[in-house]
Amino acid sequence: MEDLLFINACVRGERSRTLQLARRFLEIWQQKHPEAVVAQRDLCRDRLSPQYPEVLEKRDALWSAGKLDDPLFAPARQFAAAGRIVIAAPFWDLSFPAILKIYLERISVTGVTFGYDDLGRSVGLCRAEKLLLITTRGGDFSLPEFAWMEMGEPQLKALCAMYGIPSFRCLAAQGLDDVRNDSAAILSRAMAEAEALAETF
Ligand SMILES: Cc1cc2nc3c(=O)[nH]c(=O)nc-3n(C[C@H](O)[C@H](O)[C@H](O)COP(=O)(O)O)c2cc1C
To answer: Which atom of ligand 1 lies nearest, measured to the CA of 97?
Structure first.
C-alpha cells in the first residue's frame, strides 16, 4: 500500500501559510490515493532534543551496540521506510527553522537512512522515490542576485542524494512579505501549483 510521511515544521501552526499550502497539497494527494496512509510528524509537538553531549553520547553507545531498534532511532526508521515524503517548513534566516535541523540530525543515522558500501562509498538506504519541500518565503529568492543566499532548498536536495531519494522537488511561494507584492495572488498561484503537483507526486 502507498504511504506518505508528512513532516510539519510550521512553527506558526494554524496561522502558517506554508501549512495552508501543504494541507492543500495533501488533500489533493489523498483524493488521488484514497487507500494511502498519511503519517504526520509534527515537530512542534514532538520537540526532539538537539544533540547535546549527553544525547550524542547515548546515541553513539546505542549505535555501537547495534541497537538500531531503540526508540531513539524511531524517527530515522520511519523516514527510511516511507514511500513518499513531504516536508513543510517556512523560510527562516535563509534556510528553515531549527526544529527541522534537529529532526534531520536525528534521522541521519548510518545503517538506517544511509550507509557505506565495501569500497567506502556513501549509499542511500531510504525507500522513498520522491521528497517534496513546501515552503513560503518573505522575500523572492528566485532572482539571480539573491538565489545563492537560499540555503534551505540546496541543503535538503543534497541530503536527498545522501539518503538515496532520487527525486527532490521544492514548491515555494515567494515574496509574501514584500509590500510591493500582491501576497494573496502569489499564494493563490502557489495553491494551484500544489494541486497540480499533487496529481503526479
Ligand atoms: C524567525 C523568522 C525568520 C525569517 N527569516 C526570513 C529570511 O531570512 N528571509 C525571508 O525572506 N523571510 C524570512 N522570514 C519571513 C518568512 O519566510 C515568511 O513570512 C513566511 O511566509 C513564513 O511562513 P509561515 O506563514 O508558514 O509561518 C522569516 C520569518 C520568521 C518568523
So the answer is: 1
Domains of the chain from N-terminus onward: 3-200 (3.40.50.360)
Predicted TM-score (pTM) of the model is 0.97
Residue 101: CB atoms within 10 A of its CB come to 16
Provide the 3-class DSSP secondary structure of residue 16: coil
- Mean pLDDT by groups of 10 residues along the chain of 201 residues: 93 98 98 96 97 98 98 98 98 98 98 97 97 98 94 98 98 98 98 98 96
Nearest CA to ligand 1 atom 18: 138
Q: Whose CA is nearest to atom 24 of ligand 1?
A: 16
Query: Residue 47's pLDDT is what?
Result: 97
The letter for the amino acid at 14 is E
d(CA 100, CA 43): 7
Q: How many A from CA of 176 to the centre of ligand 1?
A: 9
Pocket of ligand 1 (CB under 6 A): 10, 12, 16-19, 90-94, 136-139, 176-177
Contacts of 141 (CB under 8 A, 6+ apart): 91, 147, 149, 150, 174
CA of 48 to the centre of ligand 1 (A): 22
